[in-house]
Design brief:
It is a single chain. The protein is of the alpha/beta class. The protein is built from 15 helices and 17 strands. It is globular. The protein starts with 5 loop residues before the first strand and ends with a helix.
Length: 410
């Protein structure tokens, strides 16, 4: 997708404008609620692949009927999958109908106030932070990191990957951070950096537990991480000792599940980047469920749906069971954990359980040295509560320029 879609400032831009929404997920539900609550012009149609009972029934249309559109605009109902939606729509030859990028639409996710539009106001040192969901990533993971920058008079310029970014802004930054970076929406920006030979530092939430840590990486996240090609020779005895402390703390107080003779299968969100880019189960979790039940005939299987999967109530089991118990309990009482690359699989590895990991992931790269890989993961990450950051770790896992590393470490 060479062209970036037009950016909107607010929903007021849709006043007296004929438009349709394309999408059927929670983002569209939240968007429609906001449109109604704020009295904005409503869409003429919502084009969906799967009907959603939480959306107005009278204006939902099958996505293929979008080919009948002759005028108006298309509002993309996603904050992460704009490119994929546009690629699907391209086959309907609607090139003359302008897209509306959701940037600035959902105030709870990506309101313009969370992004920088005026680069001229930057007068001192700064870091460039690229994110499709700055509130979640900022408040949940890098809030203290940004506070440390502010205390050292280093500004943070937050941009959406679809925003126009001047080359000079990239050259002069003390660091360029892309959160996740594994989705198609990031590719235009990543290609710009590659063309300019500007190094990117990738950021992502961490492990044990995921909500309390984040990490940086020079190559990418998940299977694209630099750990994949690292011989881990830098690991010291204290790294392995720290891993043991993490292991004890993470499973401390874990309840005992009443069964033991079962295979635990944690499910993923179907549109997670790990599923779409690093696995063969791209048709959704039902496909994975069927595969598991066919593979383990005669075995007891306990599935756990991802809490953020809006499709979980539609899954059909032939002989397995669903559970909503704590994943740690399900891990520790199981005889095997089989899943697609996810944080739960890493937790199972931390619990020294036998695991089968579908897809491309570090767990399959380090089959013979899982503890060393886990120790590296723990050593690489930072606590969300950190107010000072280890210079050696930043040097190893980021492309931050020296003045930035000095500011963070002191």
């Amino acid at each position: 997708m060479e062209d970036k879609p037009e950016c909107l400032g607010t929903l007021d831009s849709l006043s007296d404008t004929e438009y349709a929404i394309i999408g059927d997920g929670q983002y569209v539900v939240d968007l429609m609620n906001q449109i109604v609550n704020e009295g904005h012009t409503k869409p003429t149609n919502i084009f969906v692949r799967t009907p959603n009972v939480d959306l107005p029934k009278g204006i939902q249309r099958p996505e293929e009927e979008i080919s009948k559109l002759k005028s108006g605009k298309l509002l993309i109902g996603s904050n992460a999958f704009q490119v994929e939606i546009m690629q699907r729509v391209d086959k309907y030859n609607l090139a003359e109908l302008p897209y509306l990028n959701p940037l600035g639409i959902d105030k709870s996710i990506e309101h313009p106030a969370n992004y920088n539009f005026n680069d001229d106001v930057v007068s001192g040192p700064y870091v460039l932070f690229i994110s499709i969901n700055p509130i979640k990533h900022h408040d949940s993971f890098v809030l203290n990191f940004f506070k440390k920058l502010a205390s050292r008079n280093i500004a943070v310029i937050v941009k959406h990957p679809f925003q126009y970014i001047q080359d000079e802004l990239l050259f002069d930054a003390l660091g360029v951070i892309v959160w996740n970076g594994a989705m198609a929406v990031h590719q235009v920006f990543i290609q710009q950096c590659e063309r300019l030979k500007v190094n990117i530092t990738y950021g992502e939430c961490g492990f044990f537990p995921q909500s309390e840590f984040f990490y940086f990486d020079k190559n990418g996240v998940n299977d694209q991480s630099q750990l994949k090609v690292d011989n881990l020779s830098w690991l010291k005895d204290d790294c392995m000792q720290k891993l043991e402390v993490v292991r004890e703390q993470f499973f401390k107080g874990t309840g005992v599940y009443p069964k033991t003779d079962y295979i635990f299968v944690p499910l993923q969100v179907p549109n997670d980047s790990n599923i779409l880019t690093n696995s063969r189960f791209t048709s959704g979790m039902q496909e994975f469920i069927d595969y598991i039940e066919d593979r383990y005939i005669g075995e007891n299987i306990i599935f756990k749906a991802h809490p953020k999967d809006r499709m979980k109530s539609s899954y059909c089991l032939k002989r397995g069971d669903f559970s909503v118990e704590d994943s740690r309990s399900l891990i520790m009482s199981s005889k095997l954990v089989h899943g697609i690359n996810s944080s739960v699989l890493y937790e199972a590895a931390l619990g020294r359980k036998t695991i089968v990991a579908e897809g491309n992931c570090l767990l399959n790269t380090f089959l013979g040295s899982v503890d060393a890989m886990l120790a590296a993961i723990v050593a690489r990450q930072h606590s969300v509560n950190d107010s000072s950051f280890d210079a050696e770790t930043l040097h190893r896992f980021s492309y931050f320029k020296e003045p930035l590393i000095e500011a963070l470490a002191n």
